[in-house]
Amino acid sequence: MTAPGRRSSTFTRLLRHGFTDPSAAERLLEGAELAELRADPVLLEALGATADPDLALHGLVRLLEAQPDPTARQELLDTLIAAKPLRDRLLGVLGASEALGDHLARHAGDWQALVTYEPRDLHRGVEEFERGLAEATDPVSLRVAYRRCLLSIAARDVCGTIDVAETAAELADLATATLRAALALAEAAAPEDAARCRLAVIAMGKCGGHELNYVSDVDVIFVGEPAEGVGEADESKALRAATSLASHMMRICSETTVEGSIWPVDANLRPEGRNGPLVRTLSSHVAYYQRWAKTWEFQALLKARPVAGDPGLGAEYVAALQPLVWQAADRENFVPDVQKMRRRVVENIPVAEVDRQLKLGPGGLRDVEFAVQLLQLVHGRADTSLHSGTTLAALEALAAGGYVGRTDAAQLDEAYRFLRSMEHRIQLHRLRRTHLVPEDEADLRRLGRSLGLRTDPVAGLLRAWKRHASVVRRLHEKLFYRPLLDAVAQLAPGEARLSPEAARERMVALGYADPAAALRHLEALASGVTRKAAIQRTLLPVLLGWFADSADPDTGLLNFRKVSDALGNTPWYLRLLRDEGAAAENLARVLSAGRLAPDLLMRAPEAVALLGDGAAGGLRPRGRAQLEQEALAAVRRADDAAQAVTAVRGVRRRELFRTAAVDIVGSYGTEAQPVEADQGALVDLVGGAVSDLTAATLAGTLRAVVRATWGDVLPTRFAIIGMGRFGGHELGYGSDADVLFVHEPRDGVGEREAGDAANKVVAEMRRLLQVPSADPPLLIDADLRPEGRSGPLVRTLKSYEAYYRRWSLGWESHALLRAEFVAGDEDLGRRFIELIDPLRYPAGGLEVDAVREIRRLKARMESERLPRGADPKLHAKLGPGGLSDVEWTVQLLQLRHGHEVAGLRTTRTRPALAAARDAGFVSPEHAEILDEAWVLATRVRNAVMLVRGRAGDTFPTDPRELAAVGRYLGHGSGHAGDMLDEYRRTARRARTVVEELFYA
After folding, report:
1. How far is the CA of 397 from the CAs of 165, 404, 721, in angstroms?
2. For residue 245, which of 203, 186, 324 has the smallest C-alpha distance?
3. How far apart are CA 184 and CA 249, in angstroms?
4. In 880-923, which residue ranges form alpha helices assigned H by DSSP?
């Protein structure tokens, strides 16, 4: 008798053997069912060796209670005591699987399936499982027999008799036997259908790859033909019969009965998916794959394997389609398509599940499988040793052939086995289809113990999981690129490497147009024993992946080599790429997105520092005040005007690069920063940044010119008024600076002297900003001045007043809607704005004749200014629904209602459109259509400048440049046509609104 307050020795022993509820376990051990074993230390040892001793003991008691009579119960107890193999198997299953414990409680004699312990029992195959299912005569008995076979697999799995790969193979073999049994039942139920057709069942996915989970959809494709002796005219009847058999077979496996279901049979990998016929003839399959199949469908065919039905037809199917699989790598945009599929899978995971996903999350099983399949498709055409549907076998073959580094392959093999083992044990517990790591402490403890982690199983499990996931995350993309470096580097004796032809194949698959040149660049970057070469060897596998994600990988790699040649020996550059997570990816995106940003960077490669995480300001554009302060400080330090403006232009070049970089990163997206969802915000950011930069450049240049000739004070007050897109804060990368110049003589200075000084300032500013140099020029355009090119370049404020009072034309009032002071004498600029406000926001709005004149000018501009040969529907500025349409519509509303609605008194298009909507002049739907069109057209112009390095209003005709514009606009490789269709559709909708609002 145990003294009050003291634990019994049994209680203590139970704790020591891993029980979490020793009180409940003690009560079960004291029950009548276990009376004979109560004092047997072997039982406790065996229970303590299971994943969950409490669950194992509870399952054992239920099994004993379920025995039909005392004789059966005694037989089980005797065998349990005498036969260690049975004891380990039975208790191992009961401690790992609540679902199989339930099965044993319902079918109390099925424990006998675990007694056999013969060599042939160690690795069972399809034939053994077919024998185990042979007595099934209906769906219910098939389920019972299936679970009985599953018991034997699970028992050998949890006892370590078979490893994870062998377990997955046996599960696939059991699925094969089950599909055959289900088809036999379907044929027995409809013998006429069976006689009319030949039906083959092709396993796909994990079943086809011989690597099935405990609970998984079994993916299949059906192929049917008329039976021998059935005429071709009866083909449709034969296909209907085959479809009926296939549907019945699927139901037999999938439907829920009193014994539950087996698993869903999923035929959605068939041609056309759910929309396609369930069964096709072989010729129909071949025709589909030859004409319509997408890249992912060929990837899926890697695992195709005939498993049931007509074996001859199944073999014909594989023989006909396998050659097409190995041609998939020749498809345009093959690698980006595969990588995009992987990204889409990750993006579709619910946010709450990402960190718990074993299969689909970053560093999960799918990462390994995608990487291996990608390499198989690239190199399998020339190397038949890679033709395996099993992930681990294919990985081994890739390593043996030099397509993957041996160390990388070994690490991935270990990680994949661990992750699959976790997945198996999670599913085995309740036989439910899940790939989520549990959150409950008890579940984690059982899972850790099932994998052999007995000391602090929860912490040990989480550490091991994170470690293996980290290995996969680090290697899965590099797996494709790292051997390219080995192919051009010196390797240790005996180490396998890619052959030159295999390296070329891989570069072509990545989208490189000149693989020989790309390999030369890799050799130059990765060869040698310097610190620079070592760091670049580490970075290049990742960089190559980012380059491949662009429209022009060749240019990206070439530009990286140029930057590396310029900065490679600079310690901060190597440290930046190695240590600052975002810098390397930002650099890869910028270097492969077109000509403008790389050209700006090459002129001063040290600007690469802006791409780092910790750089001062990073990629955030700087404000006008800060830019102007830097420009004026540079002027003060210079010895003369030329030197000063050179410094100011250098600031402009650097800041243009910063703006282009943030635009590219926001448009492409990176691991650290997703694609900017609000494209309008990105347009506003670029327009505002370039406009602020232009204003600061003009302010610095003005100060430099004045300082060089007149010292601190110019004989006349001088102001620069921004016009057009400049005044509207909507400048693009290639925009000129539209301006007006206004001056006012200082007290005591004659008008002639003041005018000469002002004209000299303008002439010198224009000259210095266009002097050929490494920095891009800034063109100053003053054609919007009174009288246009025929009028004086600079006027006094009084001259402007007199002109506007007597001679001003309608188009000039229209142009003044965008006027805004940008540089020079602030008070003079303010008075100029006060002077023109009554002109651009006339009291009472516009008269009918003025509105008619504006419409006439717009129509004439559409017909006269559009370049000859240009497609009007794709002209972002002057075409229907383009920038001009939207801006003139908004500006007409400003001219008519600006005097009465304060919100319309702005130089910016989008805020003016929003104010017109809020005031009721434009419906919310129409405002949204116009805004969308304006944003898209502006992004097209920005994209053309980024890609081509020169301004343009139409889409490029060069396919690679067009693809790069598409990539910037969010359209993946191979979807340039979709981009053009989207632009036409958006512009067409906008034009309809313009005709209603502007021309009505």
Report:
1. 16, 9, 70
2. 186
3. 8
4. 883-897, 909-918
